[in-house]
Amino acid sequence: MSKIDQIEGVPARDLANAIRALAMDAVEQAKSGHPGMPMGMADAATVLFSQFLKFDASDPRWPDRDRFVLSAGHGSMLLYALLHLTGYEDMPLDELKRFRQLGSKTPGHPEYGHTEGVETTTGPLGQGLANAVGMAIAEAHLNARFGDALVNHRTWVICGDGCLMEGISQEALALAGRQKLNKLVLIWDDNSISIDGAVSLSDITDQKARFAASGWNVLSCDGHNMDDVARALDAATKSDKPVFIACKTTIGFGSPKKAGTHKAHGEALGPEEIVATKAALNWPHGAFEIPDNIRAAWKKIGSRGVKERGLWADRLKASEHKAAFRAAIDGDNVEAAIGALALHAAKMAAEKPAIATRASSGGAIEAMFAAVPELIGGSADLTPSNNTLAKGTQDFTPENRAGRYIRYGIREHGMAAAMNGMAAHGGVIPYAGTFLAFADYSRPAIRLGALMGVRAIHVMTHDSIGVGEDGPTHQPVEQIAALRAIPNLFVFRPADAVEIRRMLATRTAARQWPERARALAPSHACAA
């Protein structure tokens, strides 16, 4: 990698300081927010967006764009500043000035479907990391189905200590390591600070050893040395495993009094400290003021992908897979499935089999599986009990990315979050099973899926409190009520094979895009 002194004719540090200034100013105006993380990660983010990320700000939904996930969602001003500076139409300066205000495009934590350029909702820590694992799975599978010409992109994630402390992170990183998702890159904002103070107050985990133990390629870099950041990111693109980069930073970088302390984490710096910080950064500009040359340089960064997107569009137009690819991305490829389910229901009505509803569920899944190539199933190590594996279906593995069944292991929470990421990525319809009693483990991710309006199907079996031989831990009592309390979540408890068919047909027809999905409530659970 060549030395990064200037980017688009502007000193690279000035581009990063534009992010810092906007983060400081927006949080100060709102009198609420988290300036420290955006200030600390501004250098690394500048390198990522200007040198590595494949995107086109003029087309936020380009299917073959790289996915960027800000798992540390409290640092939302990092993402909002980047979206504004690179030219996303949905993020004018006025939206930054309305940070955290009712009705703005800039809520305190990024929300999927609310703001263009936000790939997933990242409020609860660790969810974004786990969503990103699902996005990488979706990319790998679609690449196997449609080839490099149409699907060939990466998933980049920025996370913090909070994401790594949350238990879901272990489930997610273990799954990614097992699947060797080499197009997944996780950049850890290693600033050693949490809300209470030093991370060492509560945690002494060797994170690099932890990720290495789970099959990741582990790298390190100085988060304030752009050349070193570029070196690490370049090495990450050549890995045969998922990559974890320990990016050492100073929270609140540039603040004379608050840098490196928990005071920079979750409160406005204050007018006097902002003046002092801008002076220390050699940024002699007023609130929300970005010099024309810096703004122009960032706009050029935002348009770096225009040519590549155009070439991709030409390849799609000429591709024999054009129709199938569009059907997968649009999420409309369901008519054949509904027809197959109708035939299955007629057969069940005529035969009146005396079978458990989970067996009926398995039959319905099998009836439509071949008709909907977008369906990708799975189970939290309960495949024989959930009946979620259609006959003849191959596993999704590092050796067979075309497989349509994922062995999630005993990781209900990580499984549900990965499914959200797969659905948000687009092109696939994820479903997976566990016992209804274990909905308690996956419920936080189910709630977020419903909040985002993504199409993820949770098959939950053994729903009767009569499963007494397993004891009270396996007897679902309050789980159905708890799930039904989640807004925008459809919960079905089908009684027979015909009712299962009707339920699946209705929900399968729902699309994943937020504007329609919110009306159709496509995120749903069913007990069988």
CATH architecture of the largest domain: 3-Layer(aba) Sandwich
Main sheet: strands, sense, barrel: 6 strands, parallel
- CATH topology label of the largest domain: Rossmann fold
Q: How many DSSP E strands?
A: 15
Please identify the structural class as seen in this structure: alpha/beta
Low-confidence spans: 511-523
Strand content: 5-15%
> Total domains, how many?
2
Give the overall shape.
globular
Helix content: 40-55%
Quote the average pLDDT: 93
Measured distance between first and last alpha carbons: 55 Å
CATH class of the largest domain: Alpha Beta
Strand order of the largest sheet: 11-10-12-13-15-14
CATH superfamily of the largest domain, by name, is: Thiamin diphosphate (ThDP)-binding fold, Pyr/PP domains
What does this molecule look like?
It is a single chain. The chain is of the alpha/beta class. It has two domains: 6-311, Thiamin diphosphate (ThDP)-binding fold, Pyr/PP domains (Rossmann fold, 3-Layer(aba) Sandwich), CATH 3.40.50.970; 331-527, Thiamin diphosphate (ThDP)-binding fold, Pyr/PP domains (Rossmann fold, 3-Layer(aba) Sandwich), CATH 3.40.50.970. The chain has 21 helices and 15 strands. It has a six-stranded parallel beta sheet, with helices on both faces. Helix 14 (335-351) packs across helix 15. The longest helix has 20 residues, at 127-146. It starts with 5 loop residues before the first strand and ends with a strand. The model is unreliable at 511-523 (pLDDT under 50).
